Automatic annotation (TrEMBL):
Coiled coil region boundaries: none
Source species of the chain: Roridomyces roridus
Signal peptide start and end residues: 1-15
Alphabetized Gene3D superfamilies for the sequence: Cupredoxins - blue copper proteins (2.60.40.420)
Compositional bias per record (Low complexity), positions renumbered to this chain: 194-208, 215-249
Stated name of the protein: Blue (type 1) copper domain-containing protein
Length: 272
């Protein structure tokens, strides 16, 4: 009975004198969505909900930048160019063509390619093990809408591979001014924070580079905004600035109040 009363009076003192409550649990950052398309720029979500590209089949004329948005979900994915005949296999260089583009396995980044020949389809897949064959995680750009080489036929061919999908080695991004068939990817995956093109995306500045894109600039909305140094707020920064309403004086008053109320409670209980 005595301990219950003391606990009750201590709780009342905490509420009355403003002893600060414990800090709230941290909230996980939301996964950014790809922004809406704009003239000359198409955006595609990667594995936003399930193992799929969204949209998985798009049309894009020459010069269009197509940006793939990778979520920071703890599971890496890729945008790896392939062929209609071999949907789950990286498109290697031949004597007549260059190697295909490849973002490499990544997360929390954006990867941009620029369309060079819109008269020919571009096929791609995610090379994370089982994502292509077992889940049909493939996509296309400028695929025919009729005939035997449609996107649906391409995805069906990937699903037919199933568990027989061969694991692909990940050596990081394959990029360069001449890398890619019917499209080029000259900049490695980077986090622009707003879906904007990296400054060197359409140029050859990043040719054969394995590094990231341009460093984030001060205009990047993803960068933390500078904090105001004006009047003190209700939170105590602990930096020696002017005392706030939750400073040492308030804590001492709360402690004294709690002790007095607890002592008063003991006297009341003794008289009962």
């Amino acid at each position: 009975m005595l301990f219950a009363a003391l606990f009750l009076f201590s709780s009342l003192a905490a509420a009355q004198y403003g002893i600060p409550p414990p800090p709230p649990a941290p909230v996980a950052a939301a996964v950014p969505l790809a922004p809406a398309d704009s003239p000359g720029h198409v955006n595609i979500n990667v594995a936003l909900s399930g193992f799929a590209f969204s949209p998985a089949n798009v049309s894009a004329p020459n010069g269009t930048a197509v940006t793939f948005w990778f979520p920071n979900s703890g599971l890496e994915h890729s945008v790896t160019q392939s062929s209609f005949e071999n949907p789950c296999t990286y498109l290697a260089a031949t004597s007549n063509t260059s190697a295909g583009f490849d973002s490499g396995l990544t997360q929390g980044t954006q990867f941009t390619i620029v369309i060079q020949d819109d008269t020919k389809p571009i096929w791609f897949h995610c090379k994370q093990i089982s994502h292509c064959g077992s889940f049909g995680m493939v996509g296309s750009i400028n695929a025919p809408t009729t005939g035997s080489n449609t996107f649906d036929a391409f995805q069906a061919a990937a699903n037919n591979i199933g568990a027989g999908e061969v694991s692909e080695t990940d050596n990081g991004p394959v990029i360069g001014a001449t890398v890619g068939v019917n499209a080029v990817a000259s900049v490695a995956p980077t986090n622009t924070g707003n879906g904007a093109l990296p400054s060197s995306a359409p140029s050859s500045a990043g040719a054969n580079s394995q590094g990231g894109g341009a460093a984030p600039s001060a205009s990047n909305p993803g960068s933390p905004a500078p904090q105001s140094s004006g009047a003190p707020t209700l939170s105590n920064s602990g930096s020696g600035a002017s005392p706030s309403t939750t400073g040492a004086g308030t804590k001492i008053q709360a402690s004294v109040g709690a002790l007095l109320l607890g002592f008063f409670g003991m006297i009341v209980l003794a008289q009962m």
